[in-house]
Amino acid sequence: MSLSTTIKSLQDIMRKDAGVDGDAQRIGQLGWLLFFKIYSDLELEAAIENERYVSPIPKGLHWSEWADQDALGKDAPTGEALIDLVENQLFPTLKELDLDSMTGKTRERGALLRGVFEDAFNYMKNGTLLRQVINKLNADIDFNQSSTRHLFGDIYEQILKDLQGAGNSGEFYTPRAATQFAVQMVDPQLGETVLDPACGTGGFLTHAYSHVQEHVKTPDELELLKRSINGVEKKSLPHLLCVTNMMIHGIEVPSNVRHDNTLARPLRDYGKADQVDIILTNPPFGGMEEDGIESNFPAEFRTRETADLFLVLVMELLKDGGRAAIVLPDGTLFGEGIKTRIKKKLLDECNLHTIVRLPNGVFAPYTSIKTNILFFTKGEPTKEVWYYEHPYPDGYKSYSKTKPMRIDEFEPEKEWWTDRQESERAWRVSVDDIVASSYNLDIKNPNTIDEGHEDPDVLLARYTEAVEQVRSAQEALRASLTESLGNV
What we know:
alpha/beta, Ferritin
């Protein structure tokens, strides 16, 4: 059975459980089970590689001691006994692991476990159905098999895509093609520290890791790379999914992916030790932060708009010479007031060299807001900004689940990137013109007609003309019918 079929079967079983309500909860349930199963498979590897390895999991709670029915036989708990073990032993114990009693790799893995399970939740209430889910996981997923591990990255990508249909959870998933393109253009190198301060399910981080891994030649270089990938995620479900994603992609203990809110720390408390070489991120936009978060920022930048706060934070966390790619909505580009002051800071302190304008529907169905990828380097002021308008592929009017954005769409941008010329898709604007327009970065393509932003008077005239044409056609048809009926 294929892994994609396995995942669908697992979700079908969970739909029968009265405790699981909706896609987001099914993904949350599947999330912690997959995490613990993969964690356990990788822990077996650690024990084989180092016979002195000590697991942070107390005796009786290892996956093999309660989940593996093939090994346990009739002693494998099911029904109410299984629910009792999970809810009253497994979860409370892992949430309260005593890290002070651990050292080295054991402490590192223990911190990972506690961080994941602190806000995880077992939604299933039917122990018989939970046993069916666990047995299917054991039968079809062995992460220590190289063939399974190779395929699982693509299957996990599909699970993350399913978040787009899971209510507000859709904010956790950025299209793979957009993250891959951004990483390729920023081009992180071995030894550079990479951060996503709002990492969601880890798309930017996994692509950055894979991008640099292509050039790794020794075990020491691989360890350096693993230590260089950093993420922070505020919400528990995407944090759980991100950690699992990192494990699947080769970072066995992703302890640098923290469950926290980077905006909750006063900006003045960040110092040089917190700064990084690369920031890749798609912060939440369109939402508001909780009361008091804005007070962590200087008075002139205080707002509850999440995307604006993250843009200020990104500038603070970059080293001089550091590079960033950040996905932002159109509203940030044309907004005034506090947004104007933030954009002035950006242009004064960073070289905003490129804005790639993405079409509608990139983040559908979560939002129809038009978005952009801003690329900039800290430490030198902006002189001019290049724009590139990313078109739909031929035959597309929008993106959908069956017609997603693809990385090969970005080939024209990648060819243009190192030999920039103005064209029907690309144009540049001097910083003087941007300043003169009160720091409006929402500059339309001067080389093509943007049908979505035409002059309202032109659109009204065109509409009036079309209405008149319809009316004339209706009158001609009516006259013809009347004449035909009169001849009967």
